[in-house]
Design goal:
This protein has 113 residues and is α+β, with helices and mostly antiparallel strands. Helix content is 42%, strand content 11%. It has a domain at 52-113: Up-down Bundle (Bacteriocin As-48, Chain A). Residues 1-22 are annotated as: Disordered.
């Protein structure tokens, strides 16, 4: 009886992560603008609540390839609700929401030459 609840939690925390679906920004942006948006988000993210070490782990996962990101999320004890990392929780139940722009590039990114 109690084991069934434990098993659900293990299944929930071990959810495989994947890249977010393709998305489009409201207007075409440059890589520099995207980088600035990401930096602003990560600088302010701990003020949204939750623990700084979880935010740090989520940033590392967002900036890593999928296999390393999976290892980071698993070792930090992050509970992944959406496989694309847009909604996660820590072991204490704090919610962490990541915008798609920190996880992938928009389809209308302006390529600078």
């Amino acid at each position: 009886m109690g084991c069934a609840g434990s098993r659900d939690k293990v299944d929930e925390t071990s959810k495989k992560i994947r890249k977010p679906k393709a998305w489009k920004h409201s207007e075409a942006i440059t890589r520099a603008q995207l980088t600035q948006m990401r930096e602003e988000f990560w600088d302010t993210a701990p003020h949204y609540g939750g623990r700084k070490e979880i935010w740090d782990a989520l940033r590392a996962a967002a900036e890593a390839d999928l296999s390393l990101a999976q290892a980071i999320v698993d070792s930090a004890g992050v509970i992944v609700q959406n496989p694309d990392l847009t909604i996660c929780y820590d072991e204490r139940g704090a919610k962490y929401e990541l915008p798609k722009y920190v996880l992938s590039e928009p389809t209308n990114l302006i390529r600078e030459s």
